[in-house]
Amino acid sequence: MRRGSALEVAEYFAPQRTATEALPEPEPLLKNLTIGVLEVLAGVREVDQLARWFGEDAFRALLTRSNLSARARSARGVPPARPAHRILSTRFSSPADGVVEGVVIVAGPARTRAVAMRLEGWDGRWRATSLGLL
User: Fold this and answer.
1) How far apart are CA 7 and CA 52, in angstroms?
2) Per DSSP, what are the bridge partners of residue 132?
3) pTM of the entire structure?
4) How many whole angstroms separate alpha carbon 29 and alpha carbon 26?
5) Fewer CB within 10 Å: N-end or C-end of the chain?
6) Which spans in 1-134 are helix H?
């Protein structure tokens, strides 16, 4: 029976990078995460529902922004309402293997917004490691 060092065991069970060819097409995820993020900020979706698709830093940033949005809605006395958004365009590129950077342009009732995301392949699936909402 072969026993590995603690470092070898930790590396074996740590998150593993995944190459682009082993991952699904990123465009549907970019679109779905964008709608999900906008629903979280509108207060009609729990941020925890998106947790598995985000890296730790991006999730924390979304959670913070969600809390600020909820506080602002509460201060104004505005109840959460499902947003009516329409995706106008999606653009993405791959600066490195297993990495996709994309922008989704979304038209809402009051304004048009851009959502920028960086997806990285980890453990056989895409995860958003960076999120910017303009």
Assistant:
1) 26
2) 116
3) 0.86
4) 5
5) N
6) 6-13, 27-42, 56-76
